[in-house]
Amino acid sequence: MSDSNQTTTFDARTELKDGMQVHAETRHFEFVVDEPESLGGTDAGPNPVEYLLGALGGCLSITGRVVADEMGIEVVELKLDLEGDLDPAKFQGADVDARAGFQEIRASVQAELRSKDGDHVDDDTRDEWLDRVERRCPVSDNLAGETPIALDRS
């Protein structure tokens, strides 16, 4: 990738099926979004916030590989455990001040990084790598900053 003012547009299509089940498509992929039975679904797939956590973990991992390559280091292993807390009250229709989304998302990063000559990287290099990853991850950016959503009501 080069520094430019070009943008890339991504898209997805969704259709609500029976109950809480949603059929989603993007590019040549199809997947199911559903709620667990405890929230009125049939548990046919992850729910939207679980996909969000997976998207964040995937984006941090991919960005981690890109940044490591740029820094001349190798990602030997990268695992992220992500979790978030949300109060379902607003989603369920209660008149509360709490947000509808996650109150906080926590990501535990387990990374083994090596220099190109096979040595483990020092803590400063690891911290710099992780700082760059966090700054450049598009999903992290969307979650941390307010992204306008334009709903066409036609």
Oligomer: single chain
Specify the helix fraction band: 25-40%
Count of the domains: 2
Please list the strands of the largest sheet in the order they lie side by side. Answer: 1-2-3
The CATH superfamily of the largest domain is identified as: K homology (KH) domain
Average residue-wise pLDDT: 94
- From the coordinates shown, what is the CATH architecture of the largest domain? 2-Layer Sandwich
Coarse structural class: alpha+beta
In the CATH scheme, what's the topology name of the largest domain?
GMP Synthetase, Chain A, domain 3
Q: Order of helices and strands, N to C? A: EEEHEEHH
Could you give a short account of the major beta sheet?
3 strands, antiparallel
Taking pLDDT < 50 over at least 5 consecutive residues as the criterion, the unreliable ranges are: none
CATH domain class of the largest domain: Alpha Beta
The number of distinct β-strands equals: 5
Q: Kindly, what is the distance between the CA atoms of the first and last residues, rounded to a whole number of angstroms? A: 37 Å
What's the number of helices? Answer: 3
**Based on CA inertia axes, which overall geometry fits?**
elongated
